[in-house]
């Protein structure tokens, strides 16, 4: 692995086989962080000696070099198929789902042929039903035609259903409704999985998770755009634990949200490998943390439209919890982070970030630290300044067990800051 620019490079939980005694070769002035990696040679990493190295392991055992076997063609399990003759209304769709519910245990399929389904009453999938509701892609569309707030589809939990390859519109004939609602889904071990979901133009939250204590929610290749709030995670007001439920975004993009992320009441949200941008100067906000919870942004770009406003793009104010920014790029000179308020229980970490504006630390009691983070100058040929820890900006270390006291610098405590990633 070769790095010839400032990076910063962040390696988390990798197994790296050495090649001729080395595995990573980074220029010695680059930002570098290595946490929880396994190497097969003692000198496998040549990098900035001022970088952060935590919990790395050296083993004499060689790593497997055989490629994994690709799975073959999936078998035809001959599921019972209920094939609708064509687009129908609420009653027709509900009747097909009820028929499938009688076949629970066989993973029955209800096929939605291409067309517009005018839904004027909520269609419910019963608890425990393992139906597969399958459309013909974007050509199969459920459109709300009722006179209340819906939802269009309700999954009564604990659910076993699979929904795929169709679109749900909450607006039709000027009515407004929720799209899909999943109730009673917070049993121990519960999992809610979304793949290539696109939520947009919601007057409230495009995606809302509320009161989850046990369930893990995964959003893979997730897109959210044009919403009042892109993703809203409301916890149950309980303190964080390693077994707490969480919402995790693994890859995707977002744009033109009034607010992209809102975490409150002990909610736990991870957004990883996500891009955000907007061309609307009236939408300078990206994230606001003003209640309590845990938020981690890892491998992201934040690019609001150029604006003359002095409002911060990311605001952490009177926040009880931890906000962690890893390998995040704050684009454009007006993109900044502000930490203010009382801050006795506020912890903020910027690790391996690139910034075009200095963050504003206005809360003297907040526990804040910048590590291996750089400033990018748009007026100097895109050059990086030295890391802030070498240029005088505050770089305070925090520890979740120190009761707000300033602790002496001790790198191993970063494991506490990265806890939102260890799920």
Key phrases:
single chain; 39 strands; 423 residues; seven-stranded parallel beta sheet
- The class by helix and strand makeup works out as mainly beta
- Detail the poorly predicted runs: 389-423
Helical content stands at under 10%
Q: Characterize the biggest β-sheet.
A: 11 strands, parallel
Total of domains = 3
Number of helices: 2
Number of strands: 39
Averaged pLDDT: 83
Give an account of the 3D structure.
It is built from 2 helices and 39 strands. It is globular. Strands 22, 23, 25, 27, 29, 31, 33, 35, 36, 38 and 39 form an 11-stranded parallel beta sheet that branches. A 7-stranded parallel beta sheet has the order 24-26-28-30-32-34-37, with no helix packed on it. Strand 19 (171-172) and strand 20 (175-176) form a beta hairpin. The model is unreliable at 389-423 (pLDDT under 50). It has 423 residues and is mainly β. The protein folds into 3 domains: 2-58, no CATH class; 78-184, no CATH class; 186-423, no CATH class.
Reconstruct the topology from this structure.
Layout (H helix, E strand, L loop, with lengths): L1 E2 L5 E4 L2 E2 L7 E3 L5 E4 L2 E2 L5 E2 L5 E3 L2 E2 L22 E3 L6 H12 L7 E4 L2 E5 L3 E3 L6 E4 L4 E5 L8 E4 L5 E3 L2 E3 L1 E2 L2 E2 L3 E4 L7 E5 L2 E3 L4 E6 L5 E10 L3 E6 L11 E10 L3 E6 L2 E11 L9 E3 L2 E12 L10 E4 L2 E11 L6 E4 L5 E6 L2 E2 L4 E2 L5 E5 L2 E2 L38 H4 L6
Parallel strand pairs: 1-4, 2-5, 3-6, 4-7, 5-8, 6-9, 10-11, 11-14, 12-15, 13-16, 14-17, 15-18, 16-21, 22-25, 23-25, 24-26, 25-27, 26-28, 27-29, 28-30, 29-31, 30-32, 31-33, 32-34, 33-35, 33-36, 34-37, 35-38, 36-39
Antiparallel strand pairs: 19-20
């Amino acid at each position: 692995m070769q790095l010839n620019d400032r990076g910063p490079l962040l390696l988390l939980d990798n197994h790296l086989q050495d090649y001729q005694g080395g595995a990573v070769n980074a220029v010695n002035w680059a930002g570098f962080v290595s946490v929880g990696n396994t190497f097969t040679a003692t000198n496998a990493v040549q990098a900035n000696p001022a970088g952060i190295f935590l919990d790395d392991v050296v083993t004499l055992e060689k790593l497997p070099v055989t490629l994994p076997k690709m799975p073959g063609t999936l078998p035809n399990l001959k599921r019972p198929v209920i094939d609708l003759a064509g687009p129908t209304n609420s009653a027709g769709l509900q009747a097909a789902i009820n028929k499938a519910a009688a076949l629970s245990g066989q993973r029955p399929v209800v096929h939605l042929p291409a067309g517009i389904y005018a839904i004027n009453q909520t269609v419910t999938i019963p608890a425990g039903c393992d139906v597969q509701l399958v459309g013909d892609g974007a050509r199969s569309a459920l459109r709300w035609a009722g006179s209340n707030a819906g939802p269009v589809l309700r999954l009564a939990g604990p659910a076993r259903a699979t929904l795929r390859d169709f679109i749900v519109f909450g607006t039709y004939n000027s009515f407004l409704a929720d799209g899909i609602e999943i109730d009673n889904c917070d049993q121990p071990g519960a999992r809610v999985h979304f793949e290539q979901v696109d939520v947009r133009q919601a007057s409230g939250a495009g995606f809302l998770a509320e009161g989850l204590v046990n369930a893990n929610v995964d959003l893979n290749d997730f897109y959210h755009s044009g919403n009042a709030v892109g993703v809203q995670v409301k916890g149950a007001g309980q303190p964080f634990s390693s077994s707490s439920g969480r919402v995790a975004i693994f890859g995707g993009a977002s744009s033109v949200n009034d607010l992209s992320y809102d975490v409150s009441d002990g909610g736990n949200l991870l957004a990883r490998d996500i891009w955000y941008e907007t061309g609307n100067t009236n939408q300078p906000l990206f994230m606001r943390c003003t209640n309590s919870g845990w938020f981690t942004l890892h491998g992201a770009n934040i690019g609001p439209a150029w604006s003359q406003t002095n409002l911060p793009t990311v605001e952490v104010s009177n926040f009880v919890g931890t906000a962690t920014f890893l390998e995040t790029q704050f684009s454009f000179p007006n993109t900044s982070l502000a930490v203010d308020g009382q801050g006795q229980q506020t912890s903020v970490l910027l690790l391996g970030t690139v910034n075009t504006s200095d963050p504003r630390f206005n809360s003297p009691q907040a526990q804040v630290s910048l590590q291996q983070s750089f400033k990018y100058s748009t007026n100097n040929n895109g050059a990086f300044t030295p890391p802030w820890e070498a240029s005088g900006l505050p770089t305070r270390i925090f520890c979740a067990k120190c009761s707000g006291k300033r602790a002496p610098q001790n790198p191993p405590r970063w494991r506490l800051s990265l806890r939102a990633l260890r799920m």
